[in-house]
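Possible regression after last week's pipeline update?

I re-ran a chain I had predicted before the update to compare outputs. Posting the input and the new output here so someone can diff against the archived version. Not blocking, just want to make sure nothing changed silently.
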Amino acid sequence: MDPTAHHYAITVSNLDRAVAFYRDTLGLDVLSEFSVGGEAFATGVGIDGASADFVHLDAGDARIELVEYTPEGDDHPEGELNQPGATHLGLEVEDLDSVYEALPDGVETIAEPQTTESGTRILFVRDPDGTLVELLEL
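New output (post-update):
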């Protein structure tokens, strides 16, 4: 087996709102939009009667998949990075300070940009559902 990455998926509660964040705030281009349903899909994802709407976004060498399920799952409290199972998406940017300054009002950040011991500059923001997105400048 020689697997290669195809996409990184984030389940969202409102697809339009999530697309607006990733497209308009983070500047990712929409590659495709589609819906999937039916018995095979519901069986494959293990959710009775499930269907879902998808948007794929271009993040350079990565494809980001946003997915909104019907029925919607239970609410889960926002996880912290140090908890097992914590998830975040990492996106490299050229000028982290400019990105930080250009963030729209209301975009939640953990802290202002920081420079780590390795010299990498990092900034964590939350998408509209609270998913952590790491913006980093190498």
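Follow-up from reviewer: compared with the archived run. The chain has two domains: 8-70, 88-137. Marking as no regression found.
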